[in-house]
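Entry 14: structure prediction run for Cyclin-domain-containing protein. Input pasted below.
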Amino acid sequence: MTKYDLARHPTSSTVKMMARLLERITKTNDKRLNKFPKPGSPFVPFYGQSLPTISIDAYLIRILKYCPCSNETFLSLLVYFDRLTASGLRINSYNIHRLLIAGLMVSTKYFSDIFYTNTRYAKVGGIPVPELNALELAFLKANQFELHITVPELERYGDQLLDHYVREQERIHQNTKRFDASAATQCSQETGPFLTFDPNVCPTYRHSWHAGLSIPS
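Run finished. Output tokens:
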């Protein structure tokens, strides 16, 4: 397994890997019939009635830009989310954004000597201050106010996150190679002495790269 360096790994890379993992989890849980918790569940405050328009990736990048925090803070979310999942939480597209902003705010206050006001977190997270205050308390209660995480545990989660991302990229690379090979086979079929090329059957294949993300102020 690839080793994750808690002190030196670029935080932007950690955020990117987390976004990929959480997007995969939410898409899986979005397929469940029961997307919302039962009344009285401690997780009710985290659920919205409509889906946010900002992606998980863009949301985490926005938080990192306007409320910078460490690898420890981001990785701690995965630990807390695992604990909450063991208590019955199902992370999906209706709750992930509130869980992220509330969890990061709580974690930053616990792990760091430097943190921002709830008003700033609310503005960055796109949530009214009173609601975020309630989410902060709900997050603490859901975790039974137990926020302690050992360094070895954080490192283990970092290793697993990096390993998941590496395997995912390898899988994407293999799928891309198979696609290219299949396209090349279609394009090289002969009719008589010449090769034919039908752009409708074999369009030019291009990798899609995003030059940057526009983060609202």
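Notes: The chain is about 55% helix and 0% strand. Will compare against the previous run tomorrow.
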